[in-house]
Amino acid sequence: MSVGRVRPAVAAMASYQPGKSSAQAEDEHGITDAIKLASNENPYPPVPAVVAAIAAAAGDVNRYGDHRAADLRTAIAGWLEVDVDRVAAGCGSVGLLQQLLLAYVDPGDEVVYPWPSFEAYPIDVQLTGGVEVTVPLVDHTFDLEVVAGAVTDRTKLVLLANPNNPTGTAVHVDQLRRLVEQVPDDVLVVVDEAYREFVTADLGDPIADLQPDHPNVVVLRTFSKAFGLAALRTGYAVAEPSVVVELDKVLIAFAVNHLAQVASLAAIAARDEVQTVVDRITVERDRVVAALRADGWDLPDAHANFVYLPLGSQTDVVFPEMEKRGVVVRPFPGVGMRVTIGTPAQNDRFLATLAEVTAGS
Question: d(Cα 133, Cα 150) in Å, to the nearest integer?
Fold first, then answer.
């Protein structure tokens, strides 16, 4: 029975589906010792200085944190060498993404993005009554000429996850520049860089390389992945001050909680230690890619903290067999399988389980 008169746009929406937990897989399959490689989480806890800062601040949770996270914005601005009025903070980069849609998209407005990409994009477009305009990937990466060609006078936003989720592919800032030069100045081009810290190739920096000449470029980043703060949900945007003003209007009150602000400030201060952890993950990522290719798998270059196996219809056979054996990954039915880089032991288990499941296929 449905109660109340839900908005048609919401009634038609699918809910966001997070990666299955190891406990869920254990309950469903009657197994023990499952590992979760499904949500692109950092397999390591935050560095000690961050843990200490969180613990020291825990006694203050009876009070609201600063709504605007002013100290955090100031620290981010100093770190990135931008003016503080160019920085917005939100509940993860996904929270800022939703703020952008709420601030700029009216019913009937178009939002252009390559697909497949981050699963929150279509949810937020539908939430605001916008119109999705999707552009297929070519060789698992963006065809930015086609993306530019999809922009019309009804387009408000272009969304680009770089590196892309789930494929892990990435494009250079020079390619992004060619796209931005073809897009009207009143269309926001949102470069969603949730996985930027794991990129080891020289792809340039859209903040330094694009924004000075293109004020319609918005860059989103997060503390969830590389900094190991996924549970605390802190993201930030770097944009023109006028865009930040609009983002702040639709910021949910106290969305960046006190512990999240304290932890993120400590993470910025400890970023050299964080980089050591990131390096450990990227070395493992490259090892896993090399091992998969040595076993005959064809997969795109990986630029984030996960690998992507474009299995097509085989996904629907391989994924459940992996899960029954306690290796929980993220399937995209009929398309492919995304696998988070874990600890070396977890990665070895993934490789061995994949080989076992696909033996003779």
Answer: 7
